[in-house]
Protein: YlmG-like protein 2, chloroplastic-like
Amino acid sequence: MRSHRADNPLAAHNFAAVLPGDSVAALVVANGINNFLNIYNTLLVVRLVLTWFPNSPPAIVSPLSTICDPYLNIFRGIIPPLGGTLDLSPILAFLVLNAITSSAAALPAELPTTTTTSQRSSSCHPIFQNLTATQEKWMRRLTSKKSKNQEDGM
Structure:
């Protein structure tokens, strides 16, 4: 019999759900944060690539600078440019942004409950043991629909 910790990679890291996983609003918020961070990551890449070209169009560079430079300036204060021209601070900026993005992806993560198998309402089949609360909720819905359909058929 396999435990839920072996199936769920987030459970191995002891992440706790910040947002309950059975709410549509929580999933919309979590996905919105994740999408925003991915778009911001893309804008940072575009901004940094455009710095390699001295004749970049100001209509593109100016809005990107307004959006990206405040975040990058935080790390420019930590890691000054080497030799006056080589700026390595975006590497640290990307590492921090990726850590925040990974944390945002774990917001709706849900750890299994710590109830014993005798307290579970689901089937005794090994595949239905160690379910999360959301999975148990769906299993109860499915089993109640099956029993209702069987009663109607008689």
In short: DSSP finds five helices and no strands in the chain. Confidence is low (pLDDT under 50) at residues 10-15, 116-124. The radius of gyration is 24 Å.
